[in-house]
Amino acid sequence: MTLDWLFPFIDPLVRLLLTSGTLIATVITVIAIAIKPIRRSLGWHHAASAVDVGIPQLEERWSTVTSLSRRDQTGDSATAKAMAAQVTSEAIAMERIVRPHTIASPVPLRQTLVMAGVIGIILVGMIAISPRQMSILLHRFWVPTSNITATQLTSATGDLRVPRSETIQLVTKQNGLRRSTAILTLRDSEGHEQTHRLRPDQEMADQFSHPIRVDESLSYRIRSGDAQTDWHQVQAIDYPEISELLFTIEYPEYANRPSVHRDLIPRRIKVVQGSTLDLAIKPLEPLQRLSISLSAPKQSVRDADSQGQDVDESVQDLVADADGWYRFHMQLIDDVVLRPVLQSPGGLTNQRKTFCRIDVIADKAPVARVISPTDEMAVAVDETIEIEFEAHDDHGIATAELVVYDETQKDADGNPKVVAVKPIPLGEQKMQKHVMGKTQLNLKELNLLEGSEISYAVRVTDNRMVPSTDENTRDPIPPSPDLLASNRETEEPAEPTDPKPADAKASDGKNLAAQPQTTQASVA
After folding, report:
1. Cross-strand partners of 175
2. What is d(CA 212, CA 223) in angstroms, rounded to the nearest whole number?
3. Most buried one in 28, 222, 248, 511, CB count within 10 A?
4. Looking at 185-189, 275-279, 330-334, 476-480, which range is the least confident one?
5. Taking residues 64-76, what's their average pLDDT?
6. Which keywords does UniProt give here (predicted)?
7. How far apart are CA 139 and CA 459, in angstroms?
8. 464 with 484: CB under 8 angstroms?
9. What's the CA gap between 41 and 20, in Å, rounded?
């Protein structure tokens, strides 16, 4: 039990061997010390020899008599028998000189009793000091293969999967006989061990705790008193990271802008409505899932995360191709916040919350303005009017034309009748954002009558033609800038409509008779 107390973590097989050895040694000692002397003292020959040794006058007659008594005297001669009878008679005759107390002197037991008393006092003292511990030791002695301890340790932390470089607390609960110290053993993947001596927590005396920074996978075990925990594993896992990234914006052909290529996701970017986004992501390690989150920029993702609010978003899961790339494609119609979410097999999401706000700039209709003449005037039926105008557009003016109206003739809706449409050549200014042009209106070609009133307008078209065939397009292209503005104000998606036609028009001509501030032409 002393060895078991000093070395509580020895193997149960060793304890079994110690218990068996102790019991065998005890039996052998008893046999060697007690049984042989007792057996010998019970024999006649030993007693006779003791008497002969104690009384030399007997001249070993008693030993001779006991020897003769054990022999078969049937075949002895008469002389031998006579001599044996003579020796026996002499031994009997000399019995009077034998004093038993001088032959078998008492053995002193004081030293033996003192030793037994000291051992008993030590045993009683140990039981008094730690009865539970002694009870456990006695139990372990008689049942050496049983897992019985005075203290029980339970790891509250257990096995863990921890993000690399994070700090955790290793917590161990103790029950039964409480200990004041514990030994924490840390073992790395190469088998190197480190030990730390622990003290119970100040607030919770029944537990030990120790902080560790997890840079690599490791195993740990805690020992205290006669108890120890099993080896537990702490696995260091990494946050998913992006190895390579391709961010591409393709502008519509009419925008006449070069494509945008980035090797990272920009925090914010402005694009022309109808542009397409191609995003390709290759993770550093295989992923369990990669998705793209799309939300309206009503509230920034960072603010929503910090305030614990939910972001109204749609999520699209991507599938890796044979080369490990995840690819995403969409047409950009409305403002959107895009955020990739990477999830590792260990359940961790990307630590860096990367997102991109894409501001979609709607293509406004082109604007035209008549510079001269701008005053009302009277002209002859065969006169030629020199008209100067300017026009501008976000991306370029494709066509221009002069539209002539007869104010004296109205249609069913009360609008003046169009009497002529004349194309205006733009020359080198075609597809320019700002155009300054001139054209002539020959009234003779119109076959007007005297007294007629006409008005004219310069009508221009841009170069926009954006098909909306992308499956990832969130809303079809609205038919007009007004509708676009309405959508932004109400923040509601438009109902599906046909794409905006390529000949979006704007005019600066006025009804000359009704609006005297503009050019008026009266035919005389």
Report:
1. 152
2. 17
3. 222
4. 476-480
5. 68
6. Membrane, Transmembrane, Transmembrane helix
7. 107
8. no
9. 31
The DSSP secondary structure of 81-128, one letter per residue, reads HHHHHHHHHHHHHGGGG--HHHHSPPPP-HHHHHHHHHHHHHHHHHHH
Cα–Cα distance for residue pair 404/509, rounded to 1 Å:
9
In the chain, the largest separation of any two C-alpha atoms, in whole Å, equals 198
Nearest to 85 by CA among 102, 64, 111: 64
Start-to-end Cα distance in the chain: 136
For residue 360, what are the β-bridge partners? Answer: 271
Distance (Å, rounded) from C-alpha 410 to C-alpha 129? 120
Q: How confident is the model at residue 519 (pLDDT cuts 50, 70, 90)?
A: very low
Listing DSSP states for 140-200 in one string gives HHHSTTS---SEEEEESS-SEEEETTEEEEEEEEEEES--S-EEEEEEETTS-EEEEEE-B
117 band by pLDDT with thresholds 50, 70 and 90:
confident
Please provide the average confidence, as pLDDT, over all residues in the chain. Answer: 77
Q: Which helix (H) or strand (E) holds 451?
A: none
Sheet with 326-331, side-by-side order of all strands: 260-262, 242-250, 276-283, 326-331
Q: Which domains does the chain have, with CATH numbers?
A: 2-142 (no CATH), 151-237 (2.60.40.10), 242-361 (2.60.40.10), 367-465+502-523 (2.60.40.10)
pLDDT 10s digits, 450-474:
888 888 899 998 877 544 444 444 3
- Tell me the β-bridge partners of 390: 369, 436
User: What does the alpha-carbon distance between residue 50 and residue 105 come to, in Å, rounded to a whole number?
Assistant: 11
Q: Which residue has the higher pLDDT, 10 or 389?
A: 389
Q: Is the pLDDT of residue 164 over 70?
A: yes
Spatial CB neighbours of 219, under 8 Å, sequence gap ≥ 6:
186, 187, 231, 232, 233, 234
